[in-house]
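Let's do one together. I've listed all components of the complex below, 354 residues spread over two lines.
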Amino acid sequence: MEEPNLKYIQELALGDEGFKQKLINIIKVELPVEIDAYTMNMKNGHFMKAAENVHKLKHKISILGLEKSYYLATGFEEDLKIESLEKRGEFEIILSQMTKFVNIL
Amino acid sequence: MNSIIIDDELAARAIISHLCDQVDSIEVIEEFPNALQAIKFLNKNEVDLIFLDIHMPDFTGFDFIDTVKNPPKIVLTTSDKNFAIEAFEYDCIIDYLVKPITLPRFLKAIQKVENFATSKQPKISSATTSKQPKISSATSETEGVSKKELYVNIDRRLIKIASETIYLIEAKGDYILIKTEDKNYTVHSTLKKIEEKLPGSLFLKIHRSFVININKIIDIEDNSVLIARDVIPISRANRPELMKRLNLL
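Okay, and this is what the predicted structure of the assembly comes out as:
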């Protein structure tokens, strides 16, 4: 299973440690907010809104270098629009992995 | 080139701003978390280039382009590859960057922007000019059926709404949000369908996502309408029809 990493952020930063830390700090703030919004919409059965949350989370997934997970999230986003929850379990494992990773940064 | 960034995600704005910092010819003068704030800014300021996210809640990047008068050059930024074909129907859209954006791909987009025709006046695309307001079939009453009231199906109940009490209808994906003086209703339908069921003399589509009751307008400011408590954008294509319907002094 692929692991979250800072490869993209490091390449993007071009050695600018200030930018790297700034982006990490933003992710530390935005990720839990986006996950909470997703969780709330799933809990309330608002699947179209949850699909929008997944769409936004896809960017964080790709920033953290999770290429395969990105494709799973894309599929889940489309599934949610037709209220199919088949990929929910796998998707929420990705969220959990990202949260753990971001918390130790 | 003076540039602005429009994206509801702070991380995305930070990344694009950092990428712009790597290019001498680009200066980011402002960043916006939503399109409406950017429209207000553009009503008073000129920019050369906009980095625009397509997928934003309530008001998408395409809604934004339809609303802005004389849009400058635009580079779309998105996590979704599915809009590429629609994107290139607009002449003002120079490139389409899929997130996560890398520096080499970003530089390629900037090269395209710099190579773009130097004409200051952006061309009006065939896509936008073809979006002329259509006179809805709702302008004529359907024989035998009154349009004074509308029945909507909510949780297997048919609920009657007096048409004149509706002030706004907003498209929300596969649903529409009907706003009345007392209550809002979310119904599985489309703007096109509801337009056909409402009196054309009262209702007008002023934007791809909004139909309004013109009797409920409080005021109109440039490219937006204040209706009840909502500020609604007017698209360029729909503005002439709206102006025609007003009793202007």
